[in-house]
Design goal:
The complex is a heterodimer. Chain A is about 30% helix and about 25% strand. Chain A is α/β, with parallel strands linked by helices. Chain A is globular. In chain B, about 55% of the residues lie in helices and about 15% in strands. The chains are: A alpha/beta, B alpha+beta.
Chain lengths: ~230, ~400
């Protein structure tokens, strides 16, 4: 991976002239069409746009869970374009935290076990893993719910557990796909407060996809996508 | 090991599905182990026969006796070194449920030809001098609690041997064997003096079977042919075969029985495989989203695949262990079932051997592996973006 590391001069995220084409049956669908985007270190960016505009696809490319058809994606100093699936998995486990719209907690694991999950890929001892997971839960204000299973938590609490899981490996970049999309307004505010805290106090670079203008207003920058092209 | 809780918790979450899969698997392993044990016991008994011993019997049926004069004629054939009469008496002890083999033999010749039947010298001397004496195997003695000097009364169900009252035998010896030298020796039979049977029936009975010891086992085929040719044109032609072949025919199509039992076992195993594979596929399909999340968190595809396979293997292991427990229990119960148990007990070494238990565990793990293979491959190939879109 060392050969693909790039000095982070251009910022936390650099998307350069990226094209993403999906093959659906015999049809080719261009989702991103020569898109370029720079996100400086410590930025809180909101990506907005109508459904099908390519927001989630762009987020997936930045998170390293999908690869571009052409162009270059550099995140946290690493050019993701030439990486194999295995290398991308390893990179994701260290550099990026993912927050989903529907939390995506593992139902058979309790809160602290869910948060601990990414640490299973590290060389930490079981005690260290548990301590770090509890610390992450404390940060999101759920230390007292550590033994609760997802079904025993409210939507807002589940999302906070998901955020704790996203930050427990201390990644430099957080990507969030509609993190408040499934929450009531009060819980949504709490989640956005948390994200702002991580951005301001811990210097995390956040790229958030949202439809909600109120959520987008919490970001430093808002960019709009339409038909695979950034319009603003 | 750090991933073990993840695997175990998934199995525990759907405990009904886990339990039913484990039970299905255990039934399969149970059947395979029981069938293999019975086959092994039958084969063990068959292979225990000596290659130096030929069994001569009536060509038409075992129910027909051979004339007494045949003994001398056979003994005189070059290559035959010794002979003894071995006649199935068919004696019943109190109740037909108390079945055990009891045979009339010529004690001196019998002990020479069957060195695996081992008696202490004093018991041997007593038996050789006692016409009404009988020797019994250690297992038979244990079964009925018989001791030296006990009187045992048997009444035969074979018409020529029925004399209006039971035969009274005295237990002169309890024979044992050297398991290392003579594995598979039957210790559940009773042998008594043919002379007693012959005299008590008014010297009217003939030879049930005659065991002929030969000097060269490699000539068993030729010797059998020679013996049979000697009586070709007589009123009682003979059928001569090695002791192993005789036992095989006695166990009634043992080879085909083994094949049939194996086919049944394999059919059951294949059915269980399909059921388990289906269960695993459903379990994995339900977890597409979770698999995508694990991969998003950085779990390599190979690790995700391994977790799914581990789950399947664990199901297999649990099913295998449970199946072996069932099999052990069943074998213990079977030998106490009236009649069936008597037949099974007549096979030496009927018990779940470590080899068959290992085979059961191996089969269970293989079934688990095969059942989990396709779901694991699907998990390996699952694309994160597509799986997440299914939410």
């Amino acid at each position: 991976m060392a050969t693909t590391e790039v000095a982070a001069k251009t910022g936390a995220v650099s998307v350069q002239n990226v094209v993403k084409v999906y093959q659906r049956d015999s049809q080719q669908i261009t989702v991103l069409d020569g898109l370029s985007l720079e996100v400086p270190q410590g930025e809180f960016l909101a990506l907005m746009g109508p459904s099908g505009s390519g927001k989630t696809t762009l987020l997936n490319l930045i998170a390293g869970i999908d690869s571009a058809t052409s162009g270059k994606v550099v995140v946290a100093g690493t050019d993701l374009t030439p990486l194999s699936e295995g290398e991308l998995a390893k990179w994701r486990s260290r550099n990026v935290g993912f927050i989903f719209q529907f939390y995506n907690l593992i139902p058979v694991l309790n809160a602290v076990e869910n948060v601990e999950l990414p640490l299973l890929l590290s060389h930490l001892s079981s005690k260290e893993r548990r301590e770090r997971a509890l610390t992450a839960l404390r940060i999101v204000g759920l230390a007292d719910r550590s033994k609760h299973y997802p079904r025993q938590l409210s939507g807002g609490q589940e999302q906070r557990v998901a955020i704790a899981r996203a930050i427990v490996t201390d990644p430099s970049v957080l990507v969030a796909d509609e993190p408040t999309g499934d929450l009531d307004s009060k819980s949504a505010e709490e989640i956005l407060d948390l994200m702002q805290t991580f951005n301001k106090e811990f210097g995390k670079t956040i790229v958030m996809v949202t439809h909600d203008p109120r959520a987008a207003s919490r970001a430093h920058t808002q960019r709009h996508l339409e038909k695979g092209v950034l319009t603003t | 090991m750090k991933f073990a809780p993840l695997v175990l918790k998934h199995l525990r979450k759907n405990w009904i599905r886990t339990l039913s899969t484990v039970l299905a698997m255990s039934v399969c392993i149970f059947l395979i182990c029981v069938l293999q044990t019975v086959i092994a016991a039958v084969n063990f008994g068959l292979n225990a026969g000596s290659t130096r011993r030929l069994v001569v019997r009536d060509y038409v049926s075992l129910a027909n006796n051979l004339p007494m004069s045949y003994k001398q004629k056979i003994a005189g054939i070059p290559g035959v070194t010794d002979t003894t009469i071995v006649s199935w008496f068919g004696g019943v002890y109190r109740d037909p449920k108390n079945f055990f083999a009891n045979l009339a033999v010529e004690p001196e010749a019998f002990l020479r030809i069957y060195p695996e039947v081992m008696l202490p010298p004093d018991q041997k001397a007593t038996w050789l001098s006692d016409v009404r004496g009988a020797i019994i195997g250690r297992k038979l003695a244990q079964r009925f609690g018989w001791k030296i000097g006990d009187h045992v009364q048997l009444e035969s169900f074979i018409p020529p041997y029925r004399v209006g009252k039971p035969f009274d035998f005295v237990v002169d010896g309890i024979y044992d064997t050297d398991e290392a030298r003579y594995p598979g020796t039957d210790l559940s039979s009773m042998y008594f003096n043919f002379k007693y049977l012959y005299e008590a029936t008014g010297q009217r009975v003939g030879i049930g079977t005659l065991t002929a010891q030969i000097d060269d086992p490699s000539r068993a085929g030729a010797m059998s042919k020679t013996i049979d040719e000697t009586f070709d044109n007589s009123d009682n032609p003979t059928k001569t075969e090695t002791e192993q072949a005789f036992r095989a025919s006695f166990v009634a199509l043992a080879g085909n029985l083994a094949l049939l039992l194996n086919v049944i076992g394999m059919a059951v195993a294949f059915t269980i495989l399909l059921v388990t594979a289906n269960t695993m596929s459903i379990a994995v399909r339900e977890r597409q989203q979770e698999i995508a999340v694990l991969k998003t968190l950085g779990f390599p595809s190979m690790l995700v695949m391994t977790l799914i396979l581990s789950e399947a293997l664990l199901l297999g292991l649990m099913g295998g262990l449970l199946g072996i427990l069932f099999a052990r229990g069943m074998i213990a119960v079977l030998v106490n079932v009236p009649f069936l148990g008597d037949i099974l007990r007549s096979f030496p070494s009927l018990g779940l051997s470590p080899q068959i238990a290992s085979l059961g565990i191996g089969m269970a793990l293989l079934l688990g592996l095969l059942a989990g293979f396709i779901p694991a491959i699907l998990a390996y190939r699952a694309r994160i973006t597509e799986a997440l879109r299914q939410v």
